[in-house]
Amino acid sequence: MAPPILKLDDIFLSFGGAPLLAGASLQVEPGDKICLVGRNGSGKSTLLKIAAGLAEAQSGEVFRHPSSTIRYLEQAPDFSGYKTVASYAEAGLGPGDDPYRVTYLLSHLGLTGEEDPKMLSGGEARRAALARVLAPEPDILLLDEPTNHLDLPTIEWLEGELQKTRSALVLISHDRRFLEKVSTATVWLDRGTSRRLDRGFAFFEAWRDQVLEAEELEQHKLGKAIEREEHWLRYGVTARRKRNMRRLGELQDMRARHRGHRGALGSVQAAASDAQESGKLVIEAEKITKAYGDRTIVAPFSIRVHRGDCIGLVGPNGAGKTTLLKMLTGQLAPDSGTVKLGTNLEIATLDQKREGLDPEETLANYLTDGRGENLLVNGEQRHVSGYMKEFLFQPEQARTPIKNLSGGERARLMLARILSRPTNLLILDEPTNDLDIETLDLLQEIVAGFNGTVILVSHDRDFLDRTVTSTIAPANPEEPDGRWIEYAGGYSDMLAQRKGAVEERKRAEKAADKPKAADAAASAEAPKGKGKLSYKQKFALENLPKEMAKAEAEIAAREKKMADPNLFTKDPASFNRLAAEMEKFRSSLTKMEEEWLELEMLREELEG
Predict the structure, then answer these.
(1) Which of 187, 184, 185, 181 is nearest to 159 (CA)?
(2) Whole-prediction pTM value?
(3) CA dist list (Å): 52 to 34, 45, 159, 537
(4) Which domain holds residue 100?
(5) Do residues 52 and 187 both lie within one domain?
(6) What are the pLDDT digits (tens) for 325-359?
(7) What is the pLDDT of residue 167?
(8) What is the total count of domains within the chain?
């Protein structure tokens, strides 16, 4: 095992009340790719700042190898003294570093380098900071939410860069797919302490659930032991002149451990408030267009949105997702074409800039609209403090100004307000920004179980795959030209359909290039009609569902075995073997699903 180049041990930090960090550790070796996970407010960013030397712990040991270089991705970069973005990014280079790396990185991050730092948007500033830390290829990269404000093509490019980098990584992100693809180890920060799993994020959630189940069982056993000892204390020594002080001391220790145990942080418990049912047809857009000057944002586009649909909008930054969303919801008039909204619509919107928040307003005032201590949720009067608890806010935060909240807490607060209002059409513009994984799980369940209609814009591939019923994306994602296409299913389904369409077009172009004689001979030999599937394709189409069912059964069998809370502690080798086998079957299942989808689309096309 290589010696660590960065080590934090027994880190303690408190701002009063329960400690934020109480014995947390982090060890980084050359080549490590560690994802740091935990709830919002668990201290992830603080621990990363301590590792970077930007914050100090109240106690604990911090070791940084003297010859190692560390770069930390700043949340709010300081551009003072820099005339251009390029000069800011180049300032991060060390002696011997390749200056061309800056040009390469800026171009892939959508910047020219000539931009004035004072004129950058929040997203552009973040991308400039990313170029600055990546350019020198340091020994250790500390990245806090590197995918924020990046579009999907850029996120996928960044994945490739981080997978092949020689730098050791410690990264924080809410993007499940990104973490799964980049990380090889996971550090879980929970209730002030840290646990490490030497596997990537794909294995984290099953492991976390087992740890919490084992902990709950241990607390149950401790409670029973205390009951037995208390019984002895009351009834077991009545005939003795002197009590067993050692045993009494042990009982007091057990009581202290039981009282001092901080259970797992609660999960958000909420559901959307139902409004009157909307009409069956929610939105009907007919050949709508939008252009700004010579640039076409939306070429003629038509869509019918029905009650119960969940539609995702994806595409590069600047492609026009928000413009199209505003046109569909009647906030922006099209240049041509028509948009008709259905009847009885009650619309609730979560905007990506969180513009609906007044930083000076208190949480209670924001949730109740200044109407006292209560609010109406699903026809029921609720006290604001009790409702806040469902979103992991403490009662004492009711009088706290919104400006004191973190980004994740602000997102949670807006979610709490939206879900308290009756609605049948949810508009979610980048809803996953700043949310922790557990709150993302809740949002996914809310969207999936919502009785109304949802339209969402997101760069989170995993969230899209888990929620949407169809996906609207640019016809040409590399160079958006205003043409948009609706695909059935989530993001992965959209990619599979695009792949099938590209391959079909290539086959058609190849066939068109054949000599006329060969083409005529082939057509003479071919059966009449529109064409047929080959025997091999028919066989695959019939048998793939059976093979997929077998793979699903294999996955379920292994999930059942891994659900044993004692398996990891008793037999880690078996746990790791089952996890590896499950990942293999999942990969195989994904490939079979993509192949079956392509064949089914081809069959439908041939049959007309």
Answers:
(1) 181
(2) 0.68
(3) 15, 10, 22, 56
(4) 6-206
(5) yes
(6) 999 999 999 999 999 998 888 888 877 666 667 88
(7) 95
(8) 4
